[in-house]
Specification:
Blueprint (H helix, E strand, L loop, with lengths): L4 E3 L5 E3 L4 E2 L12 E2 L12 E2 L11 H9 L22 H20 L4 E5 L6 H14 L4 E5 H8 L5 H10 L2 E5 L10 H15 L4 E5 L9 H9 L1 H7 L9 E5 L6 H7 L1
Parallel strand pairs: 6-9, 6-10, 7-8, 8-9
Antiparallel strand pairs: 1-2, 2-3, 4-5
Helix pairs in contact: 1-3, 2-3, 7-8
Length: 267
């Protein structure tokens, strides 16, 4: 890809020289915002504001950075660490798990260590909240990050016209966040195999990667075994390491935590 162009996880191309999509939104002025009326005297040129550009808003640098990171079309502010509330959990073990998860993800941002974090647990325990908060901090710091959901991952990996470019981005982005993964997979294990390839490639090269999701595997004896069925034993050996801060990976479990969204709705 041209060095002046960048791609969002959704496949949208941006020109880094102008912070605008590759194709101009306004066909009247090609996004220049000014036009020269055709009947003007060439010796007395006066440009006028494009009459059609009022239909389009000029995107700020912050807006483009959010879209490049993977938040195109998001109609709400990104989550932050400050509004992540472990105290909403109903018992001590759950609150402890949530606080530990928050601390580990925060350290991953600041120190980019451990290189590989796998955040797993049931729905409604704050996994996406932590992933978005991490992406939010990285974007504000001006760092390159890609936030990819499982839905986007599956769609783009099955797009035979764009899969190679998408996979290349997954393998080379400075910081990668894969959210809502291992929820559902195809029968031939294609997505599972490509996920393993991405994780191993990045882990071998010490490239910071955060992966989150719940697990559906009725044949597994426990959540760790279910996770191993998705990511493979080689990856699991890294995230289950006992080397402390020197470990290459970290498995962060939230399986003692409750679905606070459902409880809040019930109340």
């Amino acid at each position: 890809m041209d060095k002046f162009k960048q791609e969002s996880p959704q496949g949208k191309i941006y020109s880094t020289s102008s912070n605008s999509p590759d194709q101009p939104e306004c066909k009247t002025c090609d996004d220049l915002k000014w036009i020269r009326p055709a009947n003007q005297d060439s010796r007395d040129v006066k440009y006028e504001p494009c009459p059609d550009c009022s239909k389009f808003s000029i995107k700020s640098d912050d807006s483009v950075r959010l879209e490049l990171a993977g938040f195109d079309g998001l109609n709400r502010p990104l989550h932050t660490f400050s509004d992540y509330m472990p105290d909403k959990q109903p018992n001590v073990d759950a609150r402890t798990q949530c606080r530990e998860a928050k601390n580990i993800v925060s350290r991953w941002i600041q120190k980019q260590s451990p290189y590989l974090i796998m955040l797993t647990g049931p729905t409604g325990t704050g996994k996406t909240h932590l992933c978005e908060s991490a992406a939010n901090e990285l974007i504000k710091a001006g760092l390159e990050v890609w936030y990819v959901t499982g839905t986007i991952y599956g769609h783009r990996m099955r797009d035979m016209n764009g899969v190679h470019a998408f996979k290349e981005q997954l393998l080379t982005k400075d910081m990668l966040i894969l959210d809502e993964m291992y929820v559902s997979w195809d029968n031939n294990d294609y997505l599972k195999t490509t996920l393993q390839e991405v994780i191993v490639h990045r882990s071998d090269r010490y490239m910071p990667t955060l992966i989150a999701g719940n697990i559906k595997d009725d044949e597994a004896k426990n959540p760790e075994a279910a996770l191993a069925n998705i990511v493979g034993q080689r990856v699991m050996s890294r995230v289950l390491s006992n080397l402390g801060e020197k470990a290459e990976g970290k498995l962060v479990s939230l399986w003692k935590s409750n679905d606070v969204r459902r409880e809040n709705e019930a109340s």
